[in-house]
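Many introductory courses stop at the sequence. We go one step further.
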Amino acid sequence: MDVSSIAIGAALPVSETRQIPPEQAAQRRELVKAAGVINQNQAVGPENELVIVFDRVSHRPVTQVLDRKTKEVVMQVPFESVLRLAQSLSGSDSSG
């Protein structure tokens, strides 16, 4: 079986593969860390988990609360709220 003619990633146009700016990459890392804090503290409930997906068109984060068993989306949460909740759970609220 000859597989040398298969080009991995050939289905994606070159324009679809864009580099993420450093500030956006930093924001993504912060969101992923925040989701970890929230899930570790079971802040969305023991039967749920917070996940972060990135919209393919706008490249903006979409935070979702999923049922752990069914993987059904229970709700979507603005990413700003996720950051504030994680900050309060970790006790590093710098607002005063």
